[in-house]
Amino acid sequence: MKVNIRIKDIALKANVSTGTVDRVLHNRGNVNEKVKEKVLKIISEMKYEPNFIARALGSNKIYHLAALIPDYSYDAYWLAPKLGIEKAEKDLGKFGVQVHQFMFNPFDIDSFIEAANKALETKPDGIVLSPILYREVLPFFETWKKLGIPFVLFNSQITEFDPLSYIGQDNYQSGYLAGKLIHYGMKQPVSVLIAHIDEEISNATHLLKKEQGLRNYFLHNNLTEKCDVLKVELKRSDAASFKSKLTEIFDNTPDLGAIFVTTSKAHDIAKFVEQYITRPVNIVGYDLLPQNLYYLNKGSISFLINQNPKGQGYWAINQLVDYLVFKKEVAPIKFFPLDIVTKENLNYYIDEDVI
Questions:
Q1: Any idea what the Cα angle at residue 144 is, between residues 138 and 150, rounded to 5°?
Q2: Contacts of 334 (CB under 8 A, 6+ apart)
Q3: Gap between the Cα atoms of 209 and 157, Å rounded
Q4: Which residues in the chain belong to E strands, given as ranges?
Q5: At how many degrees (to 10) do helices 7-14 and 18-25 cross?
Q6: Which of 156, 137, 130, 138 has the alpha carbon at shortest distance from 72?
Q7: Distance CA 37, CA 24 (A)
Q8: Residue 351: per-residue pLDDT
């Protein structure tokens, strides 16, 4: 049975006050070096473990966290991370955790900068965000680092500025997996289209990693001579261009048999294929949005890779709280599994309470 060691027990054995032990534990100084060594030795011998949960419950400190979240009214994908963040705040509220949300239009750079500045004005203890706008977020990383504000990233991984932690999938590996799924579904060599939708690809590192993953699967398996890998960038806001670009690709690529959609918009591709293309096309995309599930159940989408966006928001807050409140060491990366969802196993992934 594990014995609960108290600071008082350590003080009695070391023949010092509890205040001295507390100063040693928190490295607050004003302790004779020999006394400090003696206390540390006893702490080690007694295998003392601080009860940060009890301490946090007994504290009146409020931890103000800022969450920079793309507005889901522009892109439905972002509702799930928002719900995950709100669930985490509800679960951790008893420890004095308050999360303030700062929403922005994911397709408007000025909207992001305004939201990030507003978050900074609140002087948060920590920040969680998905850095979907690579160039624009870097100056904020620099500022937060200088101010000593820890930040946790989810969905999009950027390592250059040493965030406290990243929560989400390995984007490169998910692209590699998509390549494998497409290859296994081939009855004969076909051309493959990588479709980036509603993103400025040069400013979206997470999508570039997905693309590189798929390309490398075909390269590593000596498929590049048999299978052309094409790429297109599409904007749903320009319906005419969306249709004409895809029509031109299909007209000029008679062996096009698979499409990898790097965002949650596979349903837009599936809808186009249903309406205008008569030959079978294997579509692989991301995320369990209702529109995607509709075409998955119809068989128009072959596979969806579940990125667990709700879990990303939930665990991003948890990582920050573990560091700030419970004084735990936080893993720099928390990769989520690459779940392959088909219409046959879909029901196992649509439970709203699953994190």
A1: 115
A2: 165, 166, 167, 168, 315, 319
A3: 10
A4: 63-70, 97-104, 126-129, 151-154, 165-168, 191-197, 229-234, 256-261, 282-286, 303-306, 333-335, 339-341
A5: 110
A6: 130
A7: 9
A8: 64
| Nearest CA among 105, 94, 89, 102 for reference residue 129 | 102
First to last CA, the chain: 32
Virtual CA dihedral for 337, 343, 344, 348, nearest 10 degrees?
Answer: 50
Instruction: Kindly give, in sequence order, each residue whose CB lies less than 8 Å from that of residue 299, ignoring residues fewer than 6 positions away.
Output: 343
Determine the pLDDT at residue 46: 79
Query: What is the Cα–Cα distance from 139 to 76, expressed in whole angstroms?
Result: 27
What does the alpha-carbon distance between residue 203 and residue 152 come to, in Å, rounded to a whole number? Answer: 19
Name the token pair of 36: 């400090």
pLDDT profile of the chain (355 residues), mean per 10: 72 87 76 85 77 55 95 94 96 92 96 97 97 94 96 90 93 97 91 95 91 97 93 95 97 96 97 95 96 96 95 96 89 94 90 58
69 vs 82: CA distance, rounded Å: 7
For 322-352, b where at least 16 C-beta lie within 10 A, e where not — what string?
bbbbbeeebeeebebeeeebebeeeeeeeee
Q: What is the pTM of this model?
A: 0.81
Task: Compute CA 48 distance to the chain's CA centroid, rounded to the nearest angstrom.
Answer: 35
Question: Which residue, 320, 351, 313, 71, is CA-closest to 168?
Answer: 313
Length of the chain: 355
Task: Detail the DSSP E strand segments found in 71-111.
Answer: 97-104
Would you state the structure tokens that stand for residue 31, as one six-digit string?
């302790």
The pairing of strands 339-341 and 303-306 is antiparallel
- Sort residue 222 into left (φ over 0), alpha (ψ -120 to 50) or beta: left
Contact call for residues 12 and 48 (beta carbons, < 8 A): no
Rounded Cα distance between 298 and 165, Å, is 38
pLDDT of residue 187: 84
Residue 175 in tokens: 């692209």
